[in-house]
Amino acid sequence: MRIRHLEQRVWRVGYQPEPWEWADWRWAGPGGRFTGRWDALDGGLYRTIYAGDSLFACLVELLAPLRPDPALTRELDQITVDPEDQAEYPTVPTGTIDVDNWAQNRLASSARLEGWFCVITAAATIAALWPRFHATAVSVYGLQDFDAAALKDARPRELTQAVSQHLWNARSADGTDLCDGIEFLSRHGDDLVLWALFERSEDGQTSPRISGIEHRHLSRGTPELVEACDFLGLHLCPAEC
């Protein structure tokens, strides 16, 4: 299994006032479970904090679900609209986001992250995990194999959450935690590197692996936000909308 030491500045976009605090348990779903790809499989066990190697990577992850459906867009484009109706009740193009409202309660933040992270799609990691998860991936979730594609597939969240919980429980030969979290590649591009940091029982409101926190407010003029929207084919709603 490939475990590498990380000590670098990373980014996160979360809710104000402190994006690096663990999500309150009251926001968990039924059974005390969160829905992130690397959250715990069993409810109430631990929480995770997600971070990216750049602000752009974080924004792509958050905004990608807002992309317009191409088929729906084509159907809407074929509808003939009366000019007077369009003038009085203008239609907002698909994929338009009210960026001011979206950014209102969010905050971009960078911090220094230090710890040991399992590089989840490394060949050595997949080979080590394969005997434990291959049968489940194939028979339960209908995947062809337990491989890098399975670990990047958005559908069987229970599979990746089971992998996360296995690594959270894993110990080194000296009895210490095997890793502090997971390093993984975005489904939106292998050049976007992300991390999931595990909560441990001794942690406070934030992980001790996080230090040097610096906040940055988001607005329609934030270059990375404009770049992420352009990358995803999203449009910024005019300021007066």
Mean pLDDT figure: 91
| Rg measurement, Å | 20 Å
Order of helices and strands: EEHHHEHEHHHEEEHE
Principal-axis shape equals globular
Show unreliable segments.
Answer: none
Largest sheet: 6 strands, mixed
In terms of structural class, how would the helical and strand content be classed? Answer: alpha/beta
Number of strands: 8
Tell me the number of helical segments per DSSP (H or I, 4 or more residues long): 8
Number of domains: 1
Describe this structure in words.
The protein is α/β, with parallel strands linked by helices. The protein has one domain (3-236). Helices cover 31% and strands 24% of the residues. The strands form two sheets. Strands 1, 2, 4, 5, 6 and 7 form a six-stranded mixed beta sheet that branches.
Keywords:
241 residues; alpha/beta; six-stranded mixed β-sheet; two-stranded parallel sheet; 8 helices; 31% helix; 24% strand; globular
